[in-house]
Write a structure and sequence with these properties.
Elements: H1 8-27, H2 47-61, H3 63-71, H4 84-99, H5 105-119, H6 124-140
Length: 141
């Protein structure tokens, strides 16, 4: 994955595009493979888009494992019952925390919380932060 060589804005863009693709995937299977956002000559060499394609593919391939980790730390609802935005933000963060060594823990959590503030409900960021705090303890132990 190109995550180690990408700039901070490219990584942020990749996370947001990935969230959009995962959200669309919830409703239209394989939609992430389509043109979201539109793929043309101008986005073909876009680092954020390339990172997003990799990240989306990795998350979808590891979805069962990611959801199992999340389920161990969400006491009130299983992953399937969580708000679509929240669960996909958690999937992105857990992928970065557990499988992408080049993303520092604090960065993965901070980016997830910021996306939850931007795209989630009023208290999403608190929920995401709490779940990730618990997950970090499992991963570090």
């Amino acid at each position: 994955m190109l995550m180690t060589k990408a700039s901070i804005p490219d990584k942020k863009k990749a996370r947001e595009l990935t969230l959009q693709k995962l959200y669309a995937e919830e409703f239209l299977k394989d939609s992430y493979k389509g043109q979201l956002p539109s793929e043309d000559e101008t986005t073909k060499n876009d680092v954020g888009e390339l990172l997003s394609k990799d990240l989306t593919r990795l998350i979808l391939e590891s979805k069962k494992d990611l959801d199992a980790i999340i389920n161990r730390h969400v006491v009130t609802w299983p992953v399937e019952k969580l708000a679509h935005v929240d669960k996909n933000i958690l999937r992105i963060a857990v992928m970065e925390l557990k499988y992408i060594d080049s993303v520092p823990t604090k960065v993965a959590v901070n980016e997830a919380v910021e996306m939850a503030k931007k795209y989630g409900s009023e208290n999403s960021y608190k929920f995401v932060n709490g779940v990730l705090g618990s997950i970090i303890e499992e991963i570090i132990d």
